[in-house]
């Protein structure tokens, strides 16, 4: 009986410890978070994909808080993975390279609505810190929005393939 009580006690401590770890803020690869929350977007996001894929499976970040950078990856086999950023999308795609991609969608910085990543106008660089990256990469539904963003924050226009290539090197 005593051994059972001790094991139950140890299991309880381990579970509490895991909860404390998962509640801790996530760090980027360089030791700081590198994440900025878009004003007005909360964990209670109304986006259907966020309700189905609340946390990024690669870093644990809340996709509702990062609706402006989140991505939704659909595979030909019908599986779908929601991630927080282009960085974690690269991680996901590399980990699932045996699976055929069907679609890759990204949140528009302005509206947080998902759009096809290849149809988006991307920006690279600038003063606004990116999500899970040192070199910011942002997606916009409208080229005019991307141009206004660059005027305010710096950076340059890019395609999805260019943004993806940079993310793959990080």
Provide a descriptive summary of the structure in words.
The chain is of the alpha+beta class and 170 residues long. The protein has one domain. Helices cover 34% and strands 18% of the residues. The protein has five helices and seven strands, in the order H-H-E-E-H-E-E-E-E-H-E-H. It has helices at 2-23, 48-52, 86-95, 143-153, 160-169, and strands spanning 71-75, 80-83, 101-107, 114-116, 121-124, 137-140, 156-158. The strands form two sheets. Strands 2-1-3-4 form a four-stranded antiparallel beta sheet. Strands 6-5-7 form a three-stranded antiparallel beta sheet, with helices on both faces. Helix 3 (86-95) packs across helix 5. The N and C termini lie far apart (53 Å). The model is unreliable at 3-44 (pLDDT under 50).
The total count of helices amounts to 5
Report, as a whole number of angstroms, the end-to-end distance: 53 Å
Give a count of the beta strands, DSSP E runs of length 2 or more.
7
Number of separate structural domains: 1
From the spread of the alpha carbons, the general shape counts as globular
- Rg result: 18 Å
Structural class, from helix and strand content?
alpha+beta
Mean pLDDT: 80
By oligomeric state, this entry counts as single chain
Percent range of helical residues: 25-40%
Tell me the major beta sheet: 4 strands, antiparallel
Q: State the low-pLDDT regions, or none.
A: 3-44
Give the percentage of residues in beta strands.
15-25%
């Amino acid at each position: 009986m005593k051994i059972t009580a001790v094991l139950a006690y140890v299991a309880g401590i381990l579970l509490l410890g895991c909860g404390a770890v998962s509640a801790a803020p996530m760090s980027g690869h360089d030791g700081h978070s590198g994440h900025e929350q878009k004003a007005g977007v909360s964990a209670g996001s109304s986006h259907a994909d966020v309700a189905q894929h609340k946390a990024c499976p690669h870093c644990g970040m809340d996709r509702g808080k990062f609706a402006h950078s989140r991505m939704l990856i659909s595979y030909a086999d019908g599986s779908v993975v929601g991630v927080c950023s282009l960085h974690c999308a690269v991680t996901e795609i590399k980990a699932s390279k045996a699976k055929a991609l069907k679609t890759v969608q990204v949140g528009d910085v302005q509206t947080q609505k998902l759009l096809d990543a290849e149809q988006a106008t991307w920006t690279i660089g600038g003063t606004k810190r990116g999500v899970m990256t040192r070199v910011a990469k942002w997606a916009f539904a409208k080229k005019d929005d991307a141009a206004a963003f660059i005027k305010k924050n710096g950076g340059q226009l890019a395609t999805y393939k260019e943004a993806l290539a940079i993310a793959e090197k990080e």
